[in-house]
Specification:
Spore Coat Polysaccharide Biosynthesis Protein SpsA, Chain A, eight-stranded mixed β-sheet, 8 strands, 11% strand, binds guanosine-5'-diphosphate-alpha-D-mannose, binds manganese (II) ion
């Protein structure tokens, strides 16, 4: 079997026949052994229609689950049951054009381990959503891309339409929470290249969208779970938490020194930052970068390098305090702005010079056992054939 098309369905009685027809049309004349797998959780008579379809058409298979166990797990079930060398996942409602499948298979054959039709690159469009859903969708994508490194270069990781070579998920332990199986695949799968091709997300044909507030909440839970399971993604969150705690320590110290001891603002700022610096070092060394523990002589360098980087951060912070003082603004506010600027710079610097990854180090977690060098590219023209 060369291609498996996995389709999660829930109460799509008016769509399943049409999508089979469209797929057959799209793959007509192409030498390709393929199967269609519906993983169905419907509570209406969709299973009856699927059974009928399966008896008439040897390409069609379906599995009905008696509980509505969610879109993500339905797709994982589809991976398990199907046999194809290539897998395409798409919705049942024709919002994802089946005419794109031949192009997706081409990409999988010749170019890339993962192929993602995207609404957000040149040639794509998002016409199938209303303005509110567009905003929600944009926010969701931005959160995902900000939080998780492996999603950063993918423009459309929430669309539910994608293709992959079976090896990508063969050994991955997939445990999606809710709908966004693609982010689970991108984080846990093993692959070397991802290609995005443009497509137009169309309006729904028939029946209703099953998207809900619960699913938005599930998405956030899912992102957080993935983020926490990857030491690399978790690191910046920890850095900010420690930094946040450090800010409190810093401001408390500054207040005591400036208001209590009436020390000059710049001197108070520098002292407060030194106190916060020591506090932060201890946390970062024991928690934030605990996987990057250095051995031998490199170990003794941590503290001096951290101090140097922090000094540069303190300089930045003090500069802001001085600026605010000159402008006749509140010195404590200057301290806050300075800290924010210093945080970004010092994270990058510390990650690189204070706690660099040691060479013999084992991967931090299962999430990072995939290749670290992933190639991302996009194809600019769609060879979508309109039927
Ligand atoms: N098996 C199964 N179980 N299938 C489900 C379930 C479930 O619990 N819930 C939904 N589905 C199926 C639907 O039948 C449909 O084929 C597909 O999953 C997507 O559901 P829709 O109801 O069509 O959702 P949508 O169109 O609002 O959302 C789609 O487009 C979004 C684009 O912004 C999905 O692809 C989203 O993942 C995507 O983000
Ligand atoms: Mn839909």
């Amino acid at each position: 079997m060369q291609l498996s098309i996995v389709i999660p369905s829930f109460n799509e009685r008016n769509n399943v026949r049409a999508i089979v027809d469209r797929i057959e049309g799209a793959l007509q004349g192409i030498q390709l052994a393929y199967e269609i797998w519906f993983i169905d959780d419907s509570s209406d008579d969709t299973p009856r229609i699927l059974a009928e379809l399966a008896s008439q058409n040897p390409h069609v298979n379906f599995h009905h689950r008696s509980a509505k166990s969610g879109l993500g797990t339905a797709v994982v079930e589809g991976f398990r049951r199907s046999k194809g060398e290539y897998i395409v996942v798409m919705d049942a409602d024709l919002q994802h054009p089946p005419e794109l499948i031949p192009e997706m298979v081409n990409q999988l054959r010749e170019v890339s381990d993962v192929v993602i039709p995207s609404r957000f690159i040149a040639g794509g469009s998002d016409g199938g959503l209303n303005a509110f859903r567009k905003l929600v969708s944009w926010t969701a994508r931005s959160i995902g891309r900000l939080a998780i490194k492996r999603l950063r270069k993918v423009t459309d990781c929430t669309g539910g339409f994608f293709g992959l070579r079976r090896q990508v998920v063969e050994r991955a332990d997939l445990n999606p929470v809710g709908w966004k199986i693609l982010i689970e695949v991108l984080v846990k799968g093993s692959y070397q290249s991802v290609v995005e091709i443009p497509y137009a997300f169309l309006a729904r044909n028939a029946d209703e969208s099953k998207m809900s507030l619960t699913e938005q909440w599930n998405y956030l839970r899912h992102i957080f779970k993935l983020l926490w399971s990857s030491a690399e993604d978790r690191r910046f969150v920890l850095y900010c938490l420690v930094g946040g705690l450090g800010v409190l320590v810093n401001l408390a110290a500054m207040s005591v020194l400036f208001y209590g001891f009436r020390i000059h603002a710049v001197a108070a700022s520098v002292l407060a930052s030194v106190i916060a610096m020591i506090h932060n070092f201890l946390w970062h060394d024991r928690v934030t970068w605990k996987e990057h523990r250095q051995a031998g002589w490199r170990k003794t360098l941590r503290m001096p390098v951290f101090v140097l980087i922090s000094l540069s951060g303190i300089a930045v912070t003090a500069l802001f305090v001085r600026l605010f003082e000159v402008l006749g603004l509140w010195e404590l506010a200057g301290q806050c702005v300075g800290i924010v600027a210093a945080t970004g710079w010092t994270f990058l610097a510390n990650n690189r010079w204070t706690w660099p990854r040691s060479l013999q180090e084992m991967p931090d977690s299962a999430c990072e056992t995939g290749s670290s060098q992933v190639l991302y590219h996009t194809v600019q023209t769609t060879r979508e054939r309109e039927s």
